[in-house]
Structures are given as C-alpha cells and as structure tokens.
Amino acid sequence: MEFLKTLQSRLANRVRARFPGFYGKLPAIAQLTRINRPVGIFLLLWPTLIALWIASGGFPSFGLFLIFTLGTAVMRSAGCCVNDFADSGIDGRVDRTQQRPLAVGSLTERDALACFLVLSIVGFLLVLMTNWTTVLLSFGAVVIVAIYPFMKRFTNLPQVVLGVAFSWGILMAFTAVGDPIPQAAYLLFIANAIWTVAYDTQYAMADREFDLKIGVKSTAILFGDADKIIIASLQVMFVISMYLAGKQFEMGFLFNLSLVAASVLLAYQQYLIRDRLPGPCFKSFLNNNWVGAIIFLGVFLNYL
Q1: Which residue in 7, 26, 43, 225 is a FRET match for 35, CA 20 to 30 A apart?
Q2: For residue range 58-108, what is the model confidence (pLDDT) as tens digits?
Q3: What pTM does this model have?
Q4: Which residue segment(s) compose the domain that 54 sits in?
Q5: How many structural domains are present in the chain?
Q6: Which CATH number do you get for residue 138?
C-alpha cells in the first residue's frame, strides 16, 4: 500500500512538472466530464448491458463486457464535453449550471473540444476491438452525440435526439456479439428511446423557468401543462415495449417481475413531479438509475 502511494505521488509530480498547465486543469476537466456525477453513465450503461446480455444469451465474454462498460463511460463524458461547449454562452445564466468550468472560465471552449476529441478517439480504439459492423455503427454514435447539444436551439424535441443517442449502444451490443440485429432488438431500441424522453423531460422540468427566459427549447416547454400526463404515458409505453421485447426474447418470470418493480418506481416519480418543483423533478430524474438497474437485474437473473 505504501509502495502504491509513493508511486502515485511520483507520477503526479512528473505530470505536474512536465505538463503544469494540464495538471492545474485536472479538477476542472473532472467536472467537465462529470466523473463526479456518474448517473448519466449508468443511464447509458444499463440498457447497453441489457442488450449485451440478451444478445449473448446470458453472460457475455469478459472482453465485450469491458469494452462496452468503458466505452459507455468514455462516450458519456465525451458528450458532456461537447454539451458544455454548445452551452458555454448560456450555462452562466442558469442556477444549476452556472458553476460549470466553461461558465466560470476555468476551461476554454478549445479545452472542451480537445477533451471531446481525445475521449472520442479512446472510444473508437475500444470499438476497434469488436468487429467492422460495430465499428461502422460507432460513427453514427459519435455524430449523434456531437449534434445533440445543439438541437435545443432548433427544435422542442432535443430529448428525442438524446433518446436515439442513449439507445445506440443497444444495436452495437447485438452486432458486437456477431449476429445480425434481430427485429426485437429494435423494439428494445424504441423502448429505451421512449424512456429517455420521459426522464430527460423530468430533467428539463427542473430548468424550465430558466430555459424559457433564455430561449432554450425542450419537451418540458413543448408539453406545457400536459407534461405530467405525457411523461406518464411515455412511461407506460416504455414498460409495455419492454414486456413485448421480453416476450420476443423469451424472457421469463423474473424479468417480468423486474418490470413490475420498475413500474412502482415510475409511479413514485409521478408523485415527485406532482407540483413541478425543480428539486423533486431532478430527484425524479435521478431515480431512473434504479429503474434501469432493476430491469438489468431481471435480465441477469433470468439467464442465471
């Protein structure tokens, strides 16, 4: 243990000596990539692992598990970099985001783009260890991740684009296993996109007051007073779609039980957003991590 601490200290000193500017920016880079807020990684990871488990008919190879877990974390962080680049001019005007690195000046737009490029390269190197079909799909993933943050300037449906981005790994999981993408996999894709729109609308509800002032578009603004009923409808559609996909993949009782448990959490989220208060709306968004975790547990136990 003492040896590891000494080695870590020596490495840190060398990085500090050779790259003083970079070392000084590390805390801000950690904040930029949201390493300290991993809920976004989990929301992207759970559906990807669900698809990987189903595509593998149980436990995937350790190599694929590692590639998709690391790739998910890397690409989520890359998405955060380009998101802050796109929002650098407005983050300082929103209470929840005004302490972000570009808003306070601890990092520049050039720094954010450099981080996005480096992380995208790392993600591409990971996907190169799969197969060419998955590699080709990965280009689509990067494009969607890059354009999503700019959609809020042009459409009230940026959450739909995010839904596609957060569901892309489902298709890549099936191709990485080596089989053609089955029709039921597209049902998983659609289900996850619907779920993403629902929980990101909850997220947008927390910022709706500020978004209206600065002219940023979102489904929370588009839905208006119908936001709660539309979110509830999307959640019902999500559960039904997952059930139908489960039937196609011949999932058993434990998977269906996980959908029941997830439905209880989704009902709890409706309770949280009942008054449309920013704090509870954000808490409702965070709760979706457990929805994904429970459904993955159902898939895991089904094959176990």
Answers
A1: 7
A2: 899 999 999 999 999 999 999 999 999 988 888 777 777 788 898 888 899
A3: 0.90
A4: 39-65+132-303
A5: 1
A6: 1.20.120.1780
